[in-house]
Design a protein that fits this description.
- The chain is mainly beta and 166 residues long.
- It is 7% helix and 28% strand.
- The chain has one domain.
- The chain contains 1 helix and 8 strands; from the N terminus they run αββββββββ.
- The strands form 2 sheets. The chain has a 5-stranded antiparallel β-sheet, with no helix packed on it. A 3-stranded antiparallel β-sheet has the order 2-1-3.
Length: 166
């Protein structure tokens, strides 16, 4: 009988191919179709009124249905961020760059996105940003239709306006 190894296996080097098809469902399909037309949809909780982007069927907070779709703006405020100084496999972005949680105007929960068109050291909480979309005819109905977010040049939002939208 084979004995188990005396030292635990710490790493396995292998090439894997894991193809899969993602079934979006009604809520996500509607959301993805809207992105193709430069619109961002959220769903509104019937109990709390909070708007979630991407749409969810039920609020994770109240468990109430969130079956009303609402369009939110493609601009918002940075609620928190990180500056990336280490290369990421598969990414060709020049270092350093910033990623941020952005609370879109009209939404209660932030999305995580790339911030570009400014130096990473200038990114800050409260900074107003807007989506940069792929050109017309190139959008396919995917999160990738938003290339990144960039500063709008508007004054920073006061902390009280976004602190509970992390």
């Amino acid at each position: 009988m084979n004995e188990p190894p005396k030292e635990p296996v710490k790493q396995i080097k292998a090439h894997m191919w894991l193809p899969y098809n993602y079934v979006a469902g009604d809520y996500k399909a509607r959301f993805l179709r809207a992105l193709k037309h430069k619109k961002i949809l959220g769903s509104k909780c019937s109990k709390t009124g909070k708007v979630f982007v991407a749409p969810v069927m039920n609020s994770a907070e109240s468990f109430a249905p969130a079956n009303e779709f609402v369009e939110v703006a493609d601009r918002g405020v940075i609620t928190t961020f990180c500056i990336v100084n280490i290369p990421v496999i598969g990414r060709t972005l020049a270092l350093p760059y910033a990623c941020a949680s952005v609370a879109l105007d009209g939404a209660d929960i932030s999305i995580f996105t790339l911030i570009q068109e400014c130096e990473a050291k200038n990114v800050r909480m409260g900074m107003r940003v807007e989506a940069v979309w792929k050109p017309d005819g190139e959008r396919e109905g995917s999160w990738d239709d938003i290339l990144h977010f960039r500063p709008t040049g508007e004054p920073d939002a006061p902390q009280a306006s976004y602190i509970n939208r992390l």
